[in-house]
Amino acid sequence: MVHDTTINQEVLIDYCDRTGLESGEFGEYYALEYEDYIVNDSLVKLISNKINKFDITIVFGSWCSDSEQQVPHFYKILDQAGFDDSQLKIIAVNRQKKADEVHIEDLQIELVPTFIIYQNDNEIGRIVETPNETLEEDLWQIIK
After folding, report:
1. Binning pLDDT at 50, 70 and 90, where does residue 24 land?
2. How distant, in Å, are the alpha carbons of 27, 83, 120, 128 from that of 55?
3. Which one of 40, 46, 55, 122 has the lowest number of neighbouring Cβ atoms within 10 Å?
């Protein structure tokens, strides 16, 4: 974590894991949003049959209200679909969409959160900031 003097708040930076997501101020939002989110069971069942064929990178800002909402929802979908966490990278960025020690320039992040789906090291789709439909529907459209 680093202290962001502009918003006078501790923010996550660089690689992160579930423990980081569940800690500090972001963790308060994470717990509430994760608990309250009701997944679409029928879509999660479809997703669960395919999801472990993919790698996912989440780029988010712990200072960002969209990240506070969407990241816990996405994580709950992954959990209920039985996604293997070893295939997940989580990268926290500052308000300039940069990390300190993780080079993310190639990811071309403009808005956060950004959920990037890869198959065989090739990006096949992304969900940027908020879903077009729902996270489940957008994810299914990418992986089906």
Report:
1. confident
2. 24, 10, 8, 16
3. 122
